[in-house]
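Hi everyone,

Forwarding the result from last night's run.
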Amino acid sequence: MKLAEALQERADLNRKIEQLRNRLENNALVQEGERPAEEPELLKRELDDAVERLAYLMARINLTNAQTQIQGQSLTEWIARKDALLVKLHAYQQIVQTGSQTVYRARNTEIRIKPAIAVAAWQTEVDGMAKELRLLDNQLQESNWKTDLMER
């Protein structure tokens, strides 16, 4: 199995676990004399199996990410770099959005609000970060499809 396939299965399992949790919650109580729409014990077993498979995949994915190298760095380091860049990008985008807002003045006597940042310069940085993020993501995706999932 390729790393990318394991990542897809992990995402599917996370969705399935959430759906099973909701289904269990919906069938946890029933009016006296009635039967639940679905059998909670069957749903519980299915949830347990999905969580067990998720734990197995997460361990294999983490092992693979830690031991696979791209350009002298582990996939774990690449992912951390991507995640940190994403946090920074979102913060900068919010600042640019705030600094770009124009405030309408009904009269000349009202207080005038102006940006305290060079919006165009910040936007240029945002654009550069977005490009770097795309390139990082492309590199990770390529590696994920070329890398076999490690089994220990």
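Residues 70-152 form one domain.

Cheers,
N.
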